[in-house]
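Narrative summary of target 7.
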Amino acid sequence: MPGTILVWVGVAVIIGVIYALIKQFETRLVLIVAGLVMCTVAGDPFLALTEFSKNMVLVTLVQTILAVMGFACVMKVTKCDAHLINLLVGLLSSVRFILVPAAMIVTAFINVSLPSAAGCAAAVGAILIPLMISLGVRPAMAAASVMGGTFGSMLSPGLSHNAYIAEKLMSTDVIHVIAVHYWADIVCILVGAVVLGSVAVFLKENKGYVPDADHTVLKLERPNIIYAMVPLVPVFLLISSAYLGAPDAPEWAKSTLSNMPWLNKLPVPIAMFIGAILGVAVTRSNPSQCVKEFFDGMGNAYASILGIIIAAGVFVAGMNAVGLVDAFIEILKNAGSAARWAAAFGPFLLAVITGSGDAAALAFNAAVSPHAEKFGMTVPHLASLATLAGTLGRTMSPLAGAAIVCAGIAGVNPLEIAKRQAPGMIICLFVAILMLQ
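Modeled conformation, tokenized:
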């Protein structure tokens, strides 16, 4: 079948997927069938099956998500989460009207230290999402507030895109690249938080929700502060590891790492294991029951969260098979005088469709951004616009790993998160265009 026809078949399948998801068909079924159809039309049905098999063992993502959800279950059985939530509910009950935007800003701040969107969403979401639900925020909005902060990584020296622009396009250090777009990043975070908070008020999802059995947290008259601190330990360890191991870290930080080498580049799963062990020890809970709950949590996470990620991988494989992604990237490369608009809308749309902001942004930056002066822009501004646009698009994609993680913690469909994120991310896209032109 000619390539052009294959591309249009891919477009038709995507329209069908959007329709099926809106109608709330089983997400995993829709994505797997769509990917299999596209791979079959392209003449390689086994590509879909191969991708399914490969995504079952995405080592980093599997380890992170399973460990976080196992840790969350241990926190539940030890009641450490209840102590933390009851403690914070009392402190935050008077400022419920700013909970949604505040959660997004806090997540963005932490995402600077933990630049992995899925890792940050898992670590932060395990704490903030149950807390917000307990304070009356609807689960989908609670999940959206955490997901919305996962483009704070634009400010991180550890973000691969910042390093790519610095090394390949500018021959400078990462800090100089971040200096180009940091104001746009900060303004987008604030604008996104305000818009999401407004959406929450408009939909009446910022207060008044009565948690169901799945989200109910034990009410405690006197929360134990020590127990309440345990759920925060993994996040503290991860942020400390990122700060101490930063390239520009002070001498005392380097000395600290030399004395505690295990803290250097601490993986998310190990931080969660430490937190779980500490929770069992501090509360003197039954170790056998805690281990059982940990593994039960891992199993449920694989089915509900990783299942969608695996299915999304099959869908993306189908789009690649029919040449849809390549065709889209080729359009970006040949954007000509419209490059600044292509740098924004191209990566943004592809990220929404695929759940990844990497492919289009990297391709655009490799092929087009070096010639930015022809379009009346500088290289760092054009490259930064493409990167930020891709990140914003990923933040409102129902197929993004971070969205699926947040949806799993909240017990909602990822599409519900995407719908709430859409207004803010679209407005942020125009803000980025104005600030980085």
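The chain has one domain: 3-435.
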